């Protein structure tokens, strides 16, 4: 896919079904310029791509091969099982493989509420959700972060506000490298402008929002924060299974700067990953890349595939933080 430079006067984006519906008197109303996000990545691009749930070196190799075969540009690859589920050799192999191609590798800190002795997560209320429980949970996340960083990982995925703030403080003090980025998981994604802004101020460099937010919600968030958003264009079933491919152009227009995440609905869960799940992990990794190709094809057909960030871009630009302690 050709990387397009930002165009100050881009050609109009074609809405799905137009002009056929317009000829029947069923055309959509013109887009309101006031709904558009005024923000972009520091390189001028409005969107980047992410392939999630890449659970080890073998799955990474599949994603890299398929992305080359299908010409799917990849800015970020993320993993969900957790840093603690990978050996040093596996982390190093993944970090080196991504670095060689200018791809950001994002690994999940753990443990978290669904994988410890707490029972509240399994109740109807969901308890404290996926957050780190107690000092030991927090300490485990910090240990994961320090270990992964020492092995060359520059992006860390978090599912707890306290973990996020703690890791940001460590980054400010130089314990973690200054160019480390923190990504808030969809498992705790904010659903209103105030909560989104809080995550930015706690230290988040990108924030995964739930895939069921309305278009108006994206505009509301962009009125208070320029922090990059991550969004499943197709969400896994445990996050709702939503498929929003036909809205991708409008989601970029309202939500920029936006990471397009190519998830997969109707697929078995693979967390925490191990060799017993090898076949499904590799098959779903391959299909996630194909889903990315489908979404990018839609953007191209609608004339909305411009303004992608250059490959190799990863930093979010200046963001607002709570005062340092």
Written description of the protein model:
- The protein is 34% helix and 11% strand.
- It is built from nine helices and eight strands.
- An eight-stranded parallel barrel has the order 1-2-3-4-5-6-7-8, surrounded by six helices.
- The longest helix is centred in the last third of the chain and has 24 residues.
- The protein is of the alpha/beta class and 325 residues long.
- The radius of gyration is 19 Å and the shape is globular.
- Helix 4 packs across helix 5 and helix 7 packs parallel to helix 8.
Helix content: 25-40%
Q: What is the 3D form?
A: globular
Uncertain stretches: 1-9
SS element count, helices: 9
* N-to-C SSE string, H for helix and E for strand: HEHEHEHEHEHEHEHEH
Spatial extent as radius of gyration: 19 Å
Q: Quick one: biggest sheet?
A: 8 strands, parallel, barrel
- For the residues shown, what is the average pLDDT? 91
Helix/strand-derived class? alpha/beta
Strand content: 5-15%
Q: Could you give the order of strands across the largest sheet?
A: 1-2-3-4-5-6-7-8
Query: What's the end-to-end separation, in Å?
Result: 45 Å
| Annotation, overall tally of beta strands | 8
Brief overview:
The chain is an alpha/beta fold. It has helices spanning 20-23, 57-70, 88-99, 134-150, 161-172, 193-202, 215-222, 248-255, 278-301, and strands at 47-51, 76-78, 104-108, 155-158, 181-184, 206-208, 229-234, 258-262. The protein is 34% helix and 11% strand.
